[in-house]
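A quick aside before the break. I want you to see a complete sequence-to-structure record at least once, exactly as it would be stored in a machine-readable document. Don't worry about memorizing anything.
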Amino acid sequence: MSNLPSRPLLGPNLRRFVRALARFVNPLTLLIAGRRWMPVVGVIHHRGRKSGRMYATPLGMRPLGDAFVMPRTFGENAAWYLNVKAAGWCVVTYRGREYTLVEPQVIEYSAA
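That is the input. The structure line, written in tokens, reads:
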């Protein structure tokens, strides 16, 4: 265990820029994500843990047995990750099909 203080991976200015960029890019990505001919990007449908509203987030993913592997691109504080963890379920659209996933688990990078 290290005595070094924990720091966010991105600084506040870069984080604001990435969020602004995502607001523009995500709606465009949703147009192609989850399609049969798009094996890299799917759509994760999740319920907001505070608002109760349903969200659709494009996300890189791949199947692994009867589960899916999705990187936490923005770390443990990514809204989609916190929402899925709180709800205990989500629906994934991948290659034109929908899958209901329950009991999300974090696995080590080497296992993915």
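Two observations worth writing down. The radius of gyration is 15 Å. Residues 1-5 have pLDDT under 50 and may be disordered. We'll return to this after the break.
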